[in-house]
Amino acid sequence: MTSTGTHIERYRTLRAELERSILPLAGSVDGRTFTLQAGLEGLQLELGGYVVLEGGGPPALGQVRALTASTMEAGTVGLAGDDASLSARVVIRLAVGSGVVLDGDPGPFHDRRARPATPDEVRAWAERTARGSARLPVGTLRLADGVAAELDAGGFDRHTFLCGQSGSGKSYSLGLVLEQLLLRTGLRIVILDPNSDFARFRELRDDADPELAARWRELAGSFALLEANGEGDDRLKLRLADLAASHQGALLQLDPVADREEYAELHGLIATARPESVEELQGTDRPEARALALRIANLGTASLGVWARGPGRTVLDALADESVRCLVVDVGSLETQQEQALVASAVLDRLWRLRKGRSPVLLVIDEAHNVCPAAPADPLTALATETAVQIAGEGRKFGLHLLVATQRPAKVHENVLSQCDNLILMRMNSPGDAAIVGDTLGFAPPGLVGRATGFGLGEALVAGKIASHPALIRFGRRVTREGGGDVGSDWAAPR
After folding, report:
1. Nearest to 159 by CA among 424, 427, 445
2. How confident is the model at residue 191, as a pLDDT?
C-alpha cells in the first residue's frame, strides 16, 4: 500500500473509532425540552420514538421530535507518526436532534443517557396519564410495539382536520374514528358523504368484535342513511320552500338587486304556495312569473331529482330530529354537481340556523375541497363555503364541531383549515402539501409532519387535543363495512 493509501486508511480508521464512541446523550436547560446526540452506526433512536433519559436522578420519559444526520469537527490529527506536516482535520458524522419530556420532572440536566423506551414503559405512562374523557381505541402506536393508540373523545370539541392522499386509508380510518365516537360517547354525528363511503355504515364486518357488534346493532336503529335512490324516508330529498331565501335565489342564479322583479316574484310565490319543487312555480301568467318560468325551464332546475314531490321526511327534517344519532347524507348518490352543492349548502345552513339549541353535533365534511373550496366555482358552493367558515370561526361555542377531510389541503378554504386544532395526517405524496399542513397547523411538530411522505397504508400522525401527545399510529380494524373503496385492478393481470 502506498504511503498515501496508508494515510487515508489511518484517517478512516480514526474517524470510525471516534464515531463509534459517540454516546446517546441528552441535555436540557428547562427540564421540559432537550437536545440530543447519538452515533449513526447502530442508531436506535427514531424520529417520533420514545426514549428514557437516565442518570443524575429519577428517569424521565421523552419523545424525539427532530432527528437528522449532521457533522462535527473532532480536531486535527497527524497521519504519519512524528511528521507533523502530514495532518488532517477529522470531521465525524453523527445524529443530532431534540425532543420533549413527556413524563417526569428532571429539571435542567446535562448528559443524560438516552435509550429507547420499552413498550411496557410507554404503556404504563399512557395508562397513568389518561384523561377523564372516553378513550377511543383506534389502533396501535407505530413506535411502541403493541401499545394501544387511543384518541381523547373530549378533544373533538375542537375542529379536526384529516388529510391523506388517495390510497392512504383515509376513508377507512375516518370510518373507524366515527365508529368509536358513536360506540363510546353520546355525540351526534352528521356526515356529508360525497363518495358513498358510508352507504353500508349499518352493516357489520363478519370478523367484528362480538361485544362491539352487539352494541352497534343497538345503535343502528338510530341511524339515518339518506341516498338518492332510497325508499320513503330514506330518500335524499328537499322541499324548495324549506330552503333559505339565499339558497333559493342562488339555485335560480337570481341576484336580489340586478334581478329584483324575478327575485321578488320568486319569494312571493314561495310564501303563498309553499311549493315542494321548482316546477310548481311555473303556473301563473303574470309577466314576472312568466320570466321566472322561462328561467326555470332554461336552467333545468325543475327536473332535478332531489325534489320531495310528496310527503315524507326530508334531509332538513332529519337534521332537526335529535333522535337521529347518526345522519349520513349520501350526496355522492345525486346525479349532478348542482344537486350535490344544493344539498351540502342546505345542510350547512340548517345546522347553523339550529345552533342556538346548543346541541353538540360533529359535522363531518368528507372531500371538503368540493364543499368549502378555496375558490368556489358557483353561487351554491360559495354559500356553503361562507357557512362553513362561520361554523369554523364561531360554531364551537354553540356545540357545532367540524371534522374536515380532504386529499388536497391547499384546495380547502384557508379560514376553515386554520381553525382546526386537531390533526390526523396520513400519507402525503407531495412534500408541498405536507408543508402547507405544517405551516397552517403549527401545533404539529414539523419533523413528524415531514414523515407523512413515507407513511404506509393506514399510518398517521395524530396531534392536538384528541391526542395526549403528537403520535405516530397505525389504524386498526373497523366494526362496519366500508361502502366505497378504490376500483379493483384486475384489468392489469396478465392475459
Report:
1. 424
2. 97
Amino acid 274: pLDDT: 72
pLDDT in tens, 230-266: 988 899 999 888 889 899 889 888 888 888 888 888 8
Closest CA to 364 of 133, 194, 241, 236: 194
Count of alpha carbons within 13 Å of 390, Cβ hemisphere only?
15
Question: Could you tell me the CA-to-CA distances from 60 to 28, 44, 119 in Å, in that order?
Answer: 12, 18, 15
Q: What is the distance between the alpha carbons of residues 59 and 36, in angstroms, rounded to a whole number?
A: 16
The three cell numbers locating residue 316 = 332538513
* Set of cell numbers at residue 452: 407523512
Q: Are 444 and 437 in contact (CB under 8 A)?
A: yes
- 8-state DSSP, 205: P
Spatial strand order of the sheet with 148-152 comes to: 148-152, 135-141, 471-475, 459-464, 422-425, 160-163, 400-406, 361-365, 188-192, 326-329, 223-226
| Grid cell at residue 166 | 388517495
Q: Are 385 and 372 in contact (CB under 8 A)?
A: yes
- Residue 446 burial by CB count (10 A; 0-12/13-18/19+): exposed, middle or buried? middle
- Mark residue 307 as left, alpha or beta (left: phi above 0; alpha: psi -120 to 50; beta: remaining): beta
The single-letter code of the amino acid at 62 is G
Distance separating alpha carbons of residues 479 and 216, to the nearest angstrom: 8
**Spatial contact of 470 and 149, defined as CB atoms under 8 Å apart:** no
Query: Which residues, 6+ apart, have CB-to-CB distance to 172 below 8 Å?
Result: 458, 475, 478, 482
Q: Is the pLDDT of residue 290 over 90?
A: no
CA distances from 360 to 185, 355, 395 (A): 11, 9, 10
Contact 33, 102 (CB under 8 A): no
pLDDT class of 276 with cuts at 50, 70, 90: low
Cβ(183)–Cβ(220) below 8 Å:
no
What average pLDDT does the segment 300-324 reach? Answer: 89
pLDDT at 491 over 50: no
User: What's the CA gap between 121 and 63, in Å, rounded?
Assistant: 12
Are 308 and 235 in contact by the 8 Å Cβ rule? The answer is no
Does the structure show a pLDDT above 60 at 202?
Answer: yes
Q: What are phi and psi of 72, to 5 degrees?
A: -150, 140
Grid cell digits, residue 228 = 338518492
Alpha-helical runs (H) found in 129-192? 170-184
